[in-house]
Every structure is written in C-alpha cells, then in structure tokens.
Design goal:
By secondary structure, the protein is of the alpha+beta class. About 35% of the residues lie in helices and about 20% in strands. It has helices at about 1-20, 30-35, 40-45, 135-155, 165-180, 185-190, 195-205, 230, 290-305, 340-350; strands spanning about 50, 55-60, 65-75, 90-100, 105-110, 220-225, 240-245, 250-255, 260-270, 280-285, 320-325, 330-335.
Length: about 350
C-alpha cells in the first residue's frame, strides 16, 4: 500500500513539473531569433550549421529599438567527426542580423576590428560550467537568458539607471556570462559597445577588459570614428560615400558632400583593386540647392528604412553606401544593386555624373 502511494506521489510530482514547464513564460525574442535565418536576406547568407548568438539591444538613429545577433559556426560541425574527448571549436561569426520587433530580420556581412585574434584561439563553444548542463537544462537556461535580455533591454532603451535597472543588469550579466561563448566576447561587445558601457556603469562588471575600436556592423548606425579608415578619409561630415564594383568589373565611387554642395566621381578601371585610393583621377560637379535637397531627402529616407539590401544577390557586383549625418553613419553593404531608397539614392547621384562617366 505504501509502495503504491509513493508511486502515485511521484507521478503527481512529475505531472506538476510538466504542467509548470508548459506554462513557463516563453521569450518572444527567442522566437524572432529562431525565425531570422528563414528571412529573405538571411536564408541566402547564413551557412548550413550556422548558430545564432545571443541578441544584443541597439538604439538606432530614427528612434527605433532593435536587436542584433550574429551567426557563428563550429569545427567540425558534424558531431560524428569528433574523436573521443574532442570538443568542436568555435568558428567566428561572418554574418549579422538586425532583428526588428515586428519580426523583420535583415542579414548582412559582419565587419569587425582587425585586432580581433586569429581563428585558432577562439576555443570551444561552452564554458566548463555550461558544458555540464543537459540538453533540457540548457534549453531552460537559454529561455531564461532571453527573458533577461528582454528585461534589461527595456531599461537600456529607456535610459533608466534606477535600482530596478541595476538589478536587471546584474541578473542579465550573470546569466549571459554563464551561457555565452567565451571566445566570442569581443564580437558580442562590438555589436553595441554603448550597451556594455551602460551595463558596466550600473554593475561595475566588464565583458571585456580592453575594448578595441570597432568598425561598423552593416546597416546599423554607428559613430564616425567606427568607420574603416580607408572610407573615413573620404566620407564627408554630411553626405554619402558610395562605392561599387566587383572582382571582374571596374570599381567606381561617388562622394556627395552636402556641406560643400559637391559631387566627386571616380572610376578605377582595374578590376578587383581598391576604389578608395585618393590619388585616382576624379571629376567634380557642383550641386544646385534643389539637387542637394533631393540627396538630403534620399539619405534621410535610407537612414530610417529597413528595405535597403538586395534579396537576390548578383554575382561579382557589390554596392556599399556610407551615409553620414554629423557624427552618425549608416553602412549598407548590398550583394548586387541596392533596393528601396538606397537604390534611388545610388541612381540619382550617378545620373548627375559627367558624360565621360
């Protein structure tokens, strides 16, 4: 009789646990990240076996609040290729996704600092503590981390530095550093240094000891000092630097300087060579007030648009647009012709080129 009662008690406990798990709060952000790889731009760029990192909140110039997540890999990617006792090693991320709260995901190539350490040094995916978790326990911790990301993001987006924000930031940091990939900490930092600096001010906790200067993530607003040096030397304070070309085609650039009201056109006829070279021959055209106003409007539209990246890549043809408004820069790297307002801007400025271009 006692044995039967014990069995019934155990079954009741199991049922309670199952019911509790069913009603456990699920992260909506986790669903957005899971669906990101199937978006039109991401499904063409994220390699098979690509793993989404944890999303980091980001404020962009038009006031929208979004997240960014990169995709990394493992080597070997197939568990059957591992020898006994061997752990797969991290392959650093090459693709990043902008994640909008309406479910839109835009993927593009990740540009990072040249100071980031070489491939061989990234190590295994998990810390020694996280590596001990069962699959079920890991999934539970992962959902909790995503909920913590959503909570801390609300305080970050609101510029809230109160006690509740501090408690949330501490909770997020502890959960994040328990589950994240230690070898990729610099990549996480570079997704949004402002977020990690805000977190450090609240908690005193640092993700990285010494942060290297990062270059911009594609499609995201950054400071002018984050633009690659070769492009920064050419980019006006207000305006645009647009470059295009490919391995087998000539490269060309146009600089639209709205302060000087000028357009500077340059063509490098040698395929697969830099178009940033300032010694190349250039022709300049003066902008009328109407033309300058039209370019300003197109730059503003492109700054606030999420419809800028080509969803049908064209082989051997890329367009990169650097858009500058004072100290804010948006970088758009399109595989083939851009779309939406970015394409309108590209076509408009080149229609103003001298006849020999």
């Amino acid at each position: 009789m006692l044995k039967k009662a014990l069995i019934i008690l155990i079954m009741a406990v199991v049922i309670v646990v199952i019911i509790a798990m069913m009603f456990k709060s699920q992260s909506s952000l986790l669903t957005i990240v899971k669906n990101a790889r199937y978006s039109p731009t991401c499904e063409k760029m994220v390699p098979m076996g690509g793993i989404a990192g944890y999303p980091i909140p980001l404020k962009i110039a038009n006031g929208e609040r979004i997240y960014q997540a990169f995709f990394f890999g493992l080597n070997p990617s197939y568990p059957g290729a591992l020898t006994p006792g061997q752990e797969p090693q991290l392959v650093p991320p090459a693709i990043v996704a902008e994640l909008h709260l309406d479910g839109t995901a835009l993927c593009s190539r990740l540009i990072t600092s040249p100071e980031i350490k070489p491939l061989a040094d990234y190590g295994p995916r998990f810390s020694s503590e996280a590596n001990k978790l069962s699959t079920g326990a890991f999934d539970s911790h992962k959902n909790d981390l995503y909920l913590a990301i959503e909570r801390v993001a609300k305080f970050y987006f609101a510029d809230d530095n109160g006690q509740n924000a501090k408690d949330s930031a501490n909770n997020f940091f502890d959960q994040f550093t328990y589950l994240f990939e230690p070898g990729l900490k610099q990549f996480y930092y570079e997704l949004n240094p402002d977020f990690w600096q805000w977190l450090e001010k609240l908690t005193g906790k640092k993700l990285v000891e010494e942060a290297v200067a990062s270059t911009p993530t594609v499609g995201v607003t950054k400071g002018l000092d984050k633009v690659p040096e070769e492009a920064r030397a050419l980019l006006p304070r207000n305006g645009a630097l647009i470059v295009s070309g490919g391995l087998l085609s000539s490269s060309r650039r146009v600089i639209a300087d709205l302060d000087k009201k000028t357009l500077t056109f340059t063509v490098n006829p040698t395929p697969n060579t830099s178009v940033y070279n300032s010694s190349l021959h250039s022709d300049q055209a003066q902008l009328t007030n109407e033309q300058a106003g039209q370019i300003t409007a197109l730059i503003n539209d492109t700054f606030t648009s999420t419809n800028t990246i080509n969803q049908r890549p064209v082989p051997d043809f890329d367009i990169i647009l650097f858009l500058a408004r004072n100290n804010s820069v948006k970088v758009i790297d399109s595989f083939g012709p851009a779309v939406g307002p970015a394409q309108k801007l590209y076509e408009y400025v080149w229609n103003l080129a001298p006849a020999n271009f």
